[in-house]
């Protein structure tokens, strides 16, 4: 009896160890593969030139178009999403209180959070057709902003929630209005948390391919107008991996590595920031 | 002073109104997405019975035949395989991290897993193409594959490696961080007193986990699994790059499949001239939306319950 | 009563991180009877109690030195099976923690784990221990309902039934009435008084009156040190130590 109990525990501990090894191993394997394939193809030319002779066929040139394009797309989308979500987060914490409306807004954000990015892409593309916009930087920004909006709102919501209510109560007690409390107390206290949310959303936006697939299109050129198509890193990976030319595939690997590095850096910085935020709140 | 106060009141009121309006507008976005998709899919939803749409196996846009069945099955098979792989591994890892991991191990592993939740799906796709597809191909052409081939669901008719199995493996790894981090948090949130109560009765660590901790954490763990499921269900890029995209109902792990998401991504925006084609694709998007939302919201509800009632 | 100590603590020191919570405590707990452990808040009562069923080592960075002898064998010896020690020594915590299952399953949790419960006598076992904890009459009609649906007082008695169901020789009680109303507290006290014939009870309490009512022996701790230990009458009526006297006076005056 006792033997059996021990044996079961050992068995499961072994399985747990095995699972941990599988999880860490596969994640490491992915990063390792990206490095192994990406590093050899990475060069100064790769990072500073646009593809020559077509991104799908031409063997010369680099992925500058995709890097700049992605930064524009994600940057624009994050800015747009931030402009929309900051008021929402403030509304949730100062004006709505625990009302039904706040509940509904949070529910809506949960709904948006779960929508697959391909659906955002299809939705944004439909809207673009209606208003007569073709695949363009602006279209991509709109689609990505929809995708990032719930991420930022949720992040900010949580950052605000960490602020002790006594703090805003103290501000109200001094006669400050809700708007003043929001801008002077909440925003200042939650800066690190807000930044974390923004960084995470940016990382999510820059890595998403499905929503920019039809909305932003693809091009060899650097972005020059809001109304022209624009290249992006995830699509650079996707399109260029599919060619039969090894030299073009190199560009896909390079784009993959650049994308991975950007996203992981953002994620690490965001975590570091939120850790600092925690310290701040506890002390 | 008077005027200043009036001004402050006014700004406050204005800010209140505008934030309220913006909140309402962004919340309505959720409704708008559903309505727009519904409106665009309307032609196909009204001209065909829902049963035929969902259960017919022919997808021939040129002949106006739109059956979602192969694509639904493609999505379900790939997601199913992914969950079969991911759930046990993730739960065991989550239990290890929450209950057994020494502090040093935890301090290294947890951030690593959290950070990798941000890896973009194309990266999983590229990795799938480089490693998983050749791996599946090797199995398919090896002795093991041939002996497996006699089992149901393991026949090998497709030697390329672009298959349900490859898609399942890639998706499974993609949802590892999602499931593990949520499950680990809910397991960790089980009150220490409860564990101690069980230990004090002479239960071993594992017995305490099995009978007390997991039972207490069950709703949250379920929510974690559902979140992972809906993430996998709605995933486009990573799957599309490795499943082969052949519109058929997969009969075996080694068959190619064609998930709904890949259907939309591959066909949308190309053949707008065919009547109803566009409606059919947006109908597929609507279907995806409805399923994912149902799962996601139920998981959220469960997690919210837990947060509220401890 | 008490020819040979049931539990004997020898030179026990405990550190949480860098902070020392118990300083070289040596004390013997006689068999059968209630030993009350008293002392101001933070003096290490809970720590002492948790060191006796080895729950201490489960909480974070703890360093333990010294010995705890149960019937003469050191429970910290390398070969000892922790689960066996914890089976022999029961615990009644200050807050009731009903396990996430039915009332019925709560009582049977320990017996089932130890393989002591046969299917045909399960009902009888449940009834016996619920009666022993004076809970049977209140819950006999809803044995299958979840345990957390009970009131706090009932939950605490359920925890007692659950602890008794593994037939421990020693029962550790950490302020078992702290979360309860006076009536429920009274019932727990009555139960403990009844139980002391069969087992050794070690009771940590803040309520000096409760200690006076129940205790046969008293242990007084102060800032992690053992100040005084002895029969209740002697410690309460005629303490040898100045600090004990001051502490007891604080209660009276
Ligand atoms: N888990 C822990 N980590 C760090 N320090 C602890 C921990 N538990 C207790 N301590 C410290 O050890 C000392 C003794 O604590 P203990 O809980 O034993 O006191 P106590 O006598 O039971 O107090 P009370 O009557 O308030 O319950 C205290 O100074 C406390 O701060
Ligand atoms: Mg205590």
Describe this structure as you would to a colleague:
Chain A has 283 residues and is mainly α. Chain A has a single domain, classed as Orthogonal Bundle (MetI-like fold). Chain A is 76% helix and 0% strand. Chain A contains 11 helices and no strands. Chain A has helices at 2-41, 44-48, 64-95, 100-114, 117-131, 137-161, 165-173, 178-189, 191-207, 233-241, 246-282. Chain A is globular and about 65 Å long. The model of chain A has no long low-confidence stretch (mean pLDDT 87). With 310 residues, chain B is mainly alpha-helical. Chain B has one domain (48-309): MetI-like (MetI-like fold, Orthogonal Bundle). Chain B has helices at residues 2-47, 50-55, 69-100, 103-116, 121-141, 143-148, 164-188, 192-200, 205-233, 237-240, 260-267, 277-309, and strands spanning 59-60, 65-66. Chain B has a two-stranded antiparallel ribbon with strand order 1-2. The longest helix of chain B is centred in the first third of the chain and has 46 residues, at 2-47. The two termini of chain B are 48 Å apart. With 253 residues, chain C is α/β, with parallel strands linked by helices. Chain C has a single domain (5-249), classed as Rossmann fold. Chain C is built from 10 helices and 10 strands. Chain C has helices at residues 45-51, 82-88, 103-113, 122-132, 136-139, 152-164, 182-195, 208-214, 232-237, 242-252; strands spanning 5-16, 19-30, 33-38, 62-70, 73-74, 89-92, 170-174, 200-204, 217-222, 225-231. In chain C, the strands form 2 sheets. In chain C, strands 6-7-8-3-9-10 form a 6-stranded mixed beta sheet, sandwiched between helices. Chain C is globular, with a radius of gyration of 18 Å. Chain C starts with a strand and ends with a helix. Chains in contact: A-B, B-C. Chain B binds chain C through residues 191-204, 207, 211-212, 215-216, and chain C through 53, 55, 58-59, 83-91, 93, 95, 97, 99-101, 109-110, 113-114, 159, 162-163, 166. Bound molecules: adenosine-5'-triphosphate and magnesium ion. The site of adenosine-5'-triphosphate has 12 residues of chain C, from helix 1.
């Amino acid at each position: 009896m006792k033997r059996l109990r021990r044996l079961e525990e050992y068995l499961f501990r072994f399985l747990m160890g095995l699972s941990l090894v599988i999880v860490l191993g596969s994640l490491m394997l992915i990063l390792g593969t990206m490095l192994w394939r990406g590093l050899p193809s990475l060069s100064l030319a790769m990072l500073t030139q646009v593809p020559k002779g077509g991104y799908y066929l031409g063997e010369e040139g680099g992925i500058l178009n995709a890097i700049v394009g992605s930064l524009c797309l994600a940057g624009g989308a994050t800015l747009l999403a931030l402009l929309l979500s900051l008021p929402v987060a403030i509304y949730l914490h100062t004006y709505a209180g625990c009302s039904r409306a706040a509940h509904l807004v949070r529910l809506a954000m949960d709904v948006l959070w779960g929508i697959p990015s391909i659906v955002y892409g299809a939705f944004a593309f439909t809207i673009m057709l209606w208003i007569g916009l073709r695949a363009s930087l602006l279209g991509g920004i709109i689609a990505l902003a929809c995708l990032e909006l719930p991420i930022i709102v949720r992040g900010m919501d949580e950052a605000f929630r960490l602020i002790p209510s006594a703090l805003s109560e103290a501000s109200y007690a001094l006669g400050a209005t809700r708007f003043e409390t929001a801008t002077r107390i909440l925003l200042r206290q939650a800066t690190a948390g807000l930044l974390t949310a923004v960084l995470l959303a940016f990382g999510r936006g820059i890595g998403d391919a499905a929503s920019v697939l039809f909305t932003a299109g693809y091009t060899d050129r650097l972005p020059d107008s809001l109304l022209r198509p624009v290249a992006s890193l995830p699509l650079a990976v996707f399109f260029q991996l599919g060619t039969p030319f090894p030299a073009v595939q190199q560009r896909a690997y390079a784009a993959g590595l650049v994308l991975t590095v950007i996203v992981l850096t953002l994620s690490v910085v965001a975590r570091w920031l939120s850790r600092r935020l925690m310290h701040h709140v506890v002390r | 002073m008077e005027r200043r106060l009036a001004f402050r009141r006014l700004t406050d009121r204005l800010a209140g109104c505008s934030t309220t309006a913006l909140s309402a507008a962004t919340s309505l976005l959720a409704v708008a997405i559903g309505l727009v998709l519904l409106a665009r899919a309307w032609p196909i939803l009204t001209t065909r019975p829902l049963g035929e749409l969902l259960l017919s196996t022919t997808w021939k846009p040129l002949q106006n035949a739109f059956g979602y069945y192969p694509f639904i099955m493609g999505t379900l098979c790939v997601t199913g395989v992914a969950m079969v792989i991911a759930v046990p591994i993730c739960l065991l890892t989550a239990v290890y991290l929450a209950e057994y991991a020494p502090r040093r191990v935890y301090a290294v592993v947890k951030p690593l897993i959290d950070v990798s939740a941000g890896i973009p799906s194309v990266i999983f796709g590229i990795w799938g193409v480089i490693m998983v597809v050749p791996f599946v191909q090797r199995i398919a052409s090896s002795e093991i594959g041939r002996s497996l081939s006699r089992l149901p669901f393991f026949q090998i008719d497709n030697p390329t490696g672009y298959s349900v199995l490859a898609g399942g493996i890639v998706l499974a790894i993609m949802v590892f961080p999602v499931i593990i981090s949520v499950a680990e948090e809910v397991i960790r949130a089980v009150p220490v007193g409860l564990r101690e109560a069980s230990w004090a009765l002479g239960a071993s660590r594992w017995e305490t986990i099995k009978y007390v901790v997991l039972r207490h954490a069950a709703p949250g763990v379920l929510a974690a699994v559902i979140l992972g499921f809906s993430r996998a269900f709605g995933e486009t890029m990573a799957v599309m790059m490795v499943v082969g995209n052949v519109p058929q109902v997969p009969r075996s792990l080694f068959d190619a499949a064609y998930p709904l998401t890949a259907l939309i991504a591959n066909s949308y925006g190309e053949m707008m001239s065919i009547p109803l084609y566009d409606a059919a694709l947006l109908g597929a998007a609507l279907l995806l939306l409805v399923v994912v939302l149902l799962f996601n919201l139920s998981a959220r509800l469960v997690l919210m319950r837990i947060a509220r009632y401890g | 009563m008490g020819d040979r100590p049931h539990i004997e603590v020898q030179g026990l020191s405990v550190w949480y991180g860098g902070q020392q919570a118990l300083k070289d405590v040596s004390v013997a707990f006689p068999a059968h009877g209630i030993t009350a452990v008293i002392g101001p808040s933070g003096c290490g009562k809970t720590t002492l109690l948790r060191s006796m069923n080895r729950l201490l080592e489960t909480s974070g960075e703890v360093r333990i030195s010294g010995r705890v002898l149960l019937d003469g064998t050191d429970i910290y010896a390398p070969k000892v099976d922790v689960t066996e020690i914890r089976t022999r020594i029961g615990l009644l915590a200050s807050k009731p923690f009903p396990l996430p299952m039915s009332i019925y399953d709560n009582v049977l949790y320990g017996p089932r784990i130890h393989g002591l419960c046969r299917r045909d006598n399960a009902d009888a076992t449940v009834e016996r221990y619920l009666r022993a904890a004076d809970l049977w009459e209140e819950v006999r009609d809803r044995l299958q309902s979840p345990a957390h649906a009970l009131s706090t007082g009932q939950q605490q008695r359920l925890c007692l039934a659950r602890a008794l169901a593994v037939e421990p020789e020693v029962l550790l009680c950490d302020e078992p009435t702290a979360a309860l109303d006076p009536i429920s507290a009274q019932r727990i006290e009555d139960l403990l008084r009844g139980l002391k014939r069969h087992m050794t009870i070690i009771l940590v309490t803040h309520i000096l009156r409760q200690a006076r009512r129940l205790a046969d022996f008293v242990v007084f701790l102060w800032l992690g040190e053992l100040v005084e230990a002895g029969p209740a009458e002697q410690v309460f009526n005629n303490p040898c130590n100045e600090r004990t006297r001051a502490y007891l006076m604080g209660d009276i005056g």
